[in-house]
TrEMBL record:
Taxonomic placement: Bacteria, Pseudomonadati, Planctomycetota, Planctomycetia, Pirellulales
Single GO MF annotation: polysaccharide transmembrane transporter activity
Start and end residues of each Polysaccharide export protein N-terminal domain: 66-153
Keyword vocabulary terms for this entry: Signal
Domain of life: Bacteria
Protein name as annotated: Polysaccharide biosynthesis/export protein
Pfam families, sorted: Poly_export
The keyword Zinc is annotated on this UniProt entry: no
The keyword Electron transport belongs to this UniProt entry's keyword annotation: no
InterPro entries linked: Poly_export, Poly_export_N
């Protein structure tokens, strides 16, 4: 009788200890299960696009095409010398030698002789004894001929007098603003932006020169994309109205791309979660130029896209949001994603300081002691991924399968949250091993 009571008490003790072990060792897969969409049930469009195959865009596409003839416009400064007229000298007096203009060190123009004549608003120039006339859109040779013709028509220049000397003293410039988020700039590494106000001379008023004047092509902390705000094309009287319309455009306006189907119920409730629209107001005033592309898919970059005018804003945005997050058995953390190559889930776990075999358990399955004596390692990974509309969905990745099947080893995307957990059977195995080494051996020695 005493033996039966003893066995009954032992059984109840083991049961109570087992219950406490389940509650205290973090058997999360049993007590708080998480569901996710298996990788094989997801369309390819939601698995991430590889970027390691991308190649840099030729930098020549970021510059204005070379033009043979320079066309005059508002803001240019001409150097003009007309014997006897500019400067004026009496017929019997010796001629006054013209001034010689030496370009600055930063200028690429040649030295010129003559007096500065600015091209005013509307392309007008004003010369002595002549009414203002337009030279906008003319070459230097055409402007010289036009000046000579007008003076001769007014009989100011008699026949036989030398032609006017007309050259370009200074090209017109365009003042643009460049905003950079590169941590290597003068602002330090606190993540704030550096702003530059740059005067770009005509023919060099393009994206390439704006980048070169502000620190070069985007660095690691910046996106492989240049955003151009064409504020020079926004009418001043409609600026607030257009900006309000731009900000009021709903997220998810548009339609699904052709050939993309969603079979899982998580996508069936909101048809606008993945949206593509080529008619947004943004595209009229904001130009995005990618700096990397897939072979065979060269981006269509027009000369007008990279040409900058006064008031335009060039921005190279930060990669601050291109992070992935970890949780569960991986512990809480955030890690930057590589910019120019891919990172899959196995690489992300290794980057987070974990391995599939040597996971540092933070609850569940009995802890690191059980793994040290042959316990099961966690192989269930859930990826919480956001859609463009802000909703999230869970992707279930079997790490054991991912080690043998690249289809399961999907790419990590910006904003993903990786949660590593035990499968129920793994927790039960670890619990059984822990229970045996905790209570079973003691009972063996007691018997």
């Amino acid at each position: 009788m005493d033996r039966n009571i003893r066995q009954f008490v032992t059984l109840w003790s083991l049961s109570l200890c087992a219950l406490l072990a389940i509650l205290n060792t973090g058997c999360t897969s049993v007590l708080s299960p998480v569901t996710g969409i298996p990788v094989f049930d997801l369309p390819d469009a939601l698995l991430g696009v590889p970027k390691s195959e991308q190649v840099p865009v030729p930098v020549v596409l970021l510059a204005r095409p070379h033009e043979e003839k320079y066309l005059l416009g508002e803001g240019d400064i001409l150097s003009v010398y007309i014997d006897g007229v500019l400067p004026f000298s009496a017929p019997n007096s010796p001629p006054t030698p013209p001034p010689v203009n030496m370009p600055s060190d930063q200028s690429f123009l040649k030295p010129s002789i003559g007096y500065p004549i600015p091209v005013q608003e509307g392309g007008l120039v004003t010369l002595p004894l002549l009414a203002p006339f337009n030279v906008s859109g003319l070459t230097l040779e055409q402007a010289r001929d036009e000046i000579s013709r007008r003076y001769r028509d007014e009989e100011i220049l008699p026949p036989g007098v030398n032609y006017p000397v007309v050259s370009l003293m200074q090209r017109r410039s365009h003042t643009v603003t460049v905003i950079r988020f590169n941590a290597q700039t003068a602002v330090g590494s606190d993540g704030t932006a550096a702003g530059y106000t740059i005067d770009l001379p005509e023919r060099r008023n393009d994206v390439l020169n704006a980048l070169m004047e502000s620190g070069g092509l985007p660095g690691f902390n910046e996106r492989n994309e240049v955003v151009i705000y064409k504020t020079s094309q926004i009418p001043a009287e409609r600026r607030n109205e257009l900006m309000s319309q731009l900000l009021a455009q709903p997220c998810g306006a548009g339609s699904h791309p052709q050939g993309l189907h969603f079979d899982h119920e998580v996508f069936a409730t909101d048809a606008n979660c993945i949206a593509y629209d080529n008619q947004l107001l943004e595209k009229q005033f904001i130009i995005r130029i990618p700096l990397r592309y897939y072979p065979g898919q060269m981006p269509h970059i027009r000369p007008s896209d990279v040409t900058l005018q006064t008031g335009d804003i060039v921005m190279v945005e930060s990669r601050e949001t291109e992070l992935f997050y970890t949780g569960g058995l991986l512990g809480g953390g955030q890690f930057p994603l590589p910019r120019d190559y891919d990172l899959d889930v196995l690489g992300a776990i290794a980057l987070a300081g974990q391995g599939i075999v040597s996971s540092n358990t933070r609850g569940g399955g009995g802890g690191g002691l059980i793994q040290g004596i042959g316990g099961a390692s966690p192989t269930q990974l859930y990826i919480i991924r956001k859609l463009p509309c802000g909703r999230t969905y869970n992707i279930a990745v079997d790490l054991q399968v991912a080690m043998n099947n690249s289809r399961e080893n999907i790419l990590v995307q910006p904003g993903d949250t990786l949660i590593l957990r035990y499968k129920p059977q793994e927790e039960l195995v670890n619990f059984g091993i822990g229970t045996f080494f905790t209570f079973g051996i003691r009972e063996l020695f007691q018997d």
